[in-house]
């Protein structure tokens, strides 16, 4: 009976403990997807949001790897906690690497801390790491990249590989050698990680193309990756479809100007792929962080429209002087200039107030509401006609429909259509500006806009007899 009891206990242990050891939560990964995060630019928050969306999208693809963010020590603690607790990301805190190329003539300050990307070689607990930038959009799982060699990257430029995604084998020896090359000032064409790595791996262009072995084994050496792992969004905008001849269409990258990144609300319909990025955000972290601000601004703009409309009769009485004297021409010119600047501000201020990473449909709706509400202040304060002031607003609405039209045969036709529409609208916008100036002139000259200082706003009683 004792032997039987002991055998039952051992059998139960063999059933329980192996299962616990191989559970996904406790199994140590051999591979990792790593991104970099640092502070010091006006767009730090936007890149933080982009990193979260990218990591969440990788998690939804069920990648067989750890998700890592190499974060500089000055990244806000609450951001790091959100990445750990809500997104399941491992945050590796590092000290910023000094960029020795800051004094180069062509150096761009926004790349000052991109050398932190070299810390990927220090992740020696992993056999392979895929280093990725935050402006990547993953369409499907790319775990086959972990079969690549010691260094693999994509040539989206005919002569220079792109460092928005590359595969590496971590090595303390390589990492120390890279730090040494930074100290001695190795040649770097652009002063950023792109130029440094291109100089460190100068012969990658002569390497063979990577094709993952069917049996899942890893290859050694350096390889070029197929273009499908770093599809430049510009290729899509030319034909409004993908035409990648080699490799799977797996990852889209946006190596464009910072203000044209896909996470900004104005990215769509200006750039069609922006909506695809926002669809990934909607399915991952959502927009709960921006919705309170959107609601507050919407209520504020609605209140402005109502108040200015109700106050218009009082404004008319205030601005009308039945006994005008000839006013100073300079004062009238200043008032006209102030009115035109107010109209311009009505179309620019909402852009600066809207949360930058909100969904494009919400962003454009809030912009149109905000610009119309601020324009109503000008209309009711300066007593100018409605249609001329709102002509740019109508033109913007029309341009959005022209850009969002889904029936263009290619990007060239789309671009020509947008330019043609702008050419068609330009005379109307100019005519509306002339109409506003003329209206202001009539208001100032004929109605004595703004009574003379010290003159009573009430009509004298004897004037009623007259």
Please describe what this structure looks like.
Mean pLDDT is 85; it is low at 1-26, 320-324 and 450-466. The longest helix has 36 residues, at 411-446. The chain folds into two domains: 28-282, Spore Coat Polysaccharide Biosynthesis Protein SpsA, Chain A; 291-446, no CATH class. With 466 residues, it is an alpha/beta fold. 48% of the residues lie in helices and 10% in strands. Helix 10 (329-353) packs antiparallel against helix 13 (411-446). It has helices at 2-21, 44-60, 77-85, 172-184, 193-200, 233-239, 267-270, 274-282, 291-319, 329-353, 360-382, 386-404, 411-446, 462-465; strands at residues 31-37, 66-72, 90-94, 128-132, 136-138, 151-154, 162-168, 222-225, 231-232, 251-253. It is elongated.
Low-confidence stretches: 1-26, 320-324, 450-466
Distance between the termini: 125 Å
Structural class: alpha/beta
| Rg on CA atoms, Å | 31 Å
Strand order of the largest sheet: 3-2-1-4-7-6-8
Signal peptide: 1-21
Keywords: Manganese, Membrane, Signal, Transmembrane, Transmembrane helix
Transmembrane segments: 285-307, 328-349, 361-383, 390-409, 421-444
Protein name: Glucuronosyltransferase PGSIP8
């Amino acid at each position: 009976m004792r032997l039987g009891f002991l055998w039952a206990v051992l059998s139960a242990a063999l059933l329980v403990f192996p299962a616990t050891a191989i559970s996904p939560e406790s199994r140590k990964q051999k591979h990792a997807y790593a991104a970099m995060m640092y502070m010091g630019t006006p767009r730090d928050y936007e890149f933080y949001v982009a990193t979260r969306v990218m990591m969440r999208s990788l998690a939804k693809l069920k990648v067989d790897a750890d998700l890592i963010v190499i974060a500089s020590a000055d990244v806000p603690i609450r951001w790091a906690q959100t990445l750990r607790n809500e997104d399941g990301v491992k945050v590796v805190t590092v000290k910023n690497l000094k960029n020795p190329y800051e004094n180069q003539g062509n150096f761009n300050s926004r790349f000052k801390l991109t050398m932190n990307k070299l810390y990927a070689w220090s992740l020696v607990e992993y056999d392979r790491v895929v280093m990725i930038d935050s402006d990547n959009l993953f369409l499907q799982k790319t775990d086959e990249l972990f079969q690549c060699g010691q260094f693999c990257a994509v040539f989206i430029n005919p002569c220079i590989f792109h460092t928005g995604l590359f595969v590496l084998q971590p090595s303390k020896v390589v990492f120390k050698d890279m730090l040494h090359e930074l100290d001695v000032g190795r040649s770097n064409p652009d002063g950023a990680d792109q130029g440094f790595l291109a100089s460190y791996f100068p012969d990658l262009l002569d390497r063979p193309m990577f094709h993952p072995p069917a049996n899942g084994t890893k290859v050694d050496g350096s390889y070029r990756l197929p273009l499908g792992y770093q599809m430049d969004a510009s290729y899509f905008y030319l034909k409004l479809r993908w035409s990648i001849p080699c490799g799977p269409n797996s990852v889209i990258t946006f190596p464009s100007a910072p203000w044209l990144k896909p996470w900004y609300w104005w990215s769509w319909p200006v750039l069609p792929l922006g909506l695809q990025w926002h669809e990934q955000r909607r399915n991952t972290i959502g927009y709960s962080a921006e919705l309170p601000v959107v609601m507050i601004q919407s209520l504020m703009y609605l209140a402005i429209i109502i108040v200015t409309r109700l106050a218009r009769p009082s404004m008319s009485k205030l601005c009308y002087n039945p006994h005008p004297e000839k006013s100073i021409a300079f004062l009238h010119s200043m008032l006209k200039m102030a009115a035109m600047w107010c109209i311009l501000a009505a179309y620019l201020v909402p852009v600066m107030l809207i949360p930058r990473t909100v969904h494009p449909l919400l962003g454009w709706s809030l912009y149109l509401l905000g610009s119309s509400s601020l324009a109503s202040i000008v209309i009711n304060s300066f007593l100018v006609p409605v249609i001329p002031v709102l002509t740019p607003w109508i033109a913007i609405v029309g341009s959005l429909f022209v850009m969002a039209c889904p029936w263009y045969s290619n990007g060239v036709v789309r671009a020509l259509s947008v330019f043609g529409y702008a050419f068609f609208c330009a005379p109307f916008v100019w005519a509306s500006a002339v109409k506003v100036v003329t209206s202001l002139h009539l208001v100032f000259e004929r109605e004595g806009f703004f009574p003379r200082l010290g003159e009573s706003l009430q009509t004298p009683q004897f004037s009623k007899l007259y």
